[in-house]
Amino acid sequence: MQDWPSLRHGTHGPWGDESRHLPLAQLEQSLARFAPPKDTGELALIVSREGAGRRQTPARADLTREGGVPGDAWARNSPEKLEAQITLMRIDVARLVANGQPLALFGDNLLVDLDLSTVNLPLASRLQIGSAILEVTEKPHTGCLKFRQRFGKDALQLTAAPELRNLRLRGIYVKVVQAGSVALGDPVRVLARGGET
C-alpha cells in the first residue's frame, strides 16, 4: 500500500503541478489513438481517499455494500448516496491527463483498462472485478474545480466536451451489488449491459 501524504494541499484538497498540464490539441491527438477493451479489461489501481486529502493505494481491497472501498471518504461523507459509492476511471485517460503526476491525485477509487462509454456500459450494466459485482449508476461523473486545478483547463474541457461526453472520460459511478475482494491485476469483466441478465 502506498500513502501520498506529500502531495501539496489547497482549499480543495491535493494540488496539481501546473507544469504538467497538457494543451487540448495534444490531449485530443493522444486520445484518438486509444482503444480500450470492451468486454474484459484489468484493474490497474485502487485508491481510498482518507481525511485531509490523503490517498492510500492498497494492492487489494474488500468492497462491501455498506462501506464501498474501505476507508474511503464516501463512507464518511455520504453513505446514503449509493449512486455515488465508487468511481471508476479509464487508466489510459488518467495517465494521459496526469502526465506524470501521481494517479491517486484523481481520487477515483478504481482505475481500469476498460471502455466505460455509454454505448459499452449503459446504465445498470454490471461488472465483475475479483469476487465483487458492481453496477453502473445513473449519476454522471463530471469534472470540477478540483479537476481543473490539478490537471488544467484543457483537460477539463476535454472531459466535458459535448461531442465526447458519451465516452465518459471523467469516469463513471458504480455501486456494490455483491461484496467481494478485488486486487491489482484482476480481470474487469462485463457481466451484463443495461440491466440484461
Short description:
By secondary structure, this protein is an alpha+beta fold. Helices cover about 20% and strands about 30% of the residues.
List keywords for this structure.
197 residues; alpha+beta; M1 Pyruvate Kinase, Domain 3; seven-stranded mixed barrel; three-stranded antiparallel β-sheet; 5 helices; 31% strand; disordered N terminus
Structure commentary:
The chain has 197 residues and is α+β, with helices and mostly antiparallel strands. It has a single domain (2-192), classed as M1 Pyruvate Kinase, Domain 3, CATH 2.40.33. It has helices at 24-32, 73-77, 91-98, 145-151, 153-160; strands at 2-3, 9-10, 13-14, 40-46, 48-49, 55-57, 60-63, 86-90, 110-113, 126-129, 132-140, 172-178, 180-183, 187-192. The protein has a 7-stranded mixed β-barrel with strand order 4-9-8-12-11-10-14. Strands 1-6-5 form a 3-stranded antiparallel beta sheet, with no helix packed on it. A hairpin with a 2-residue loop joins strand 2 (9-10) and strand 3. The protein is globular, with a radius of gyration of 16 Å.
Topology overview:
Layout: E1 2-3, E2 9-10, E3 13-14, H1 24-32, E4 40-46, E5 48-49, E6 55-57, E7 60-63, H2 73-77, E8 86-90, H3 91-98, E9 110-113, E10 126-129, E11 132-140, H4 145-151, H5 153-160, E12 172-178, E13 180-183, E14 187-192
Parallel strand pairs: 8-9
Antiparallel strand pairs: 1-6, 2-3, 4-9, 4-14, 5-6, 7-13, 8-12, 10-11, 10-14, 11-12
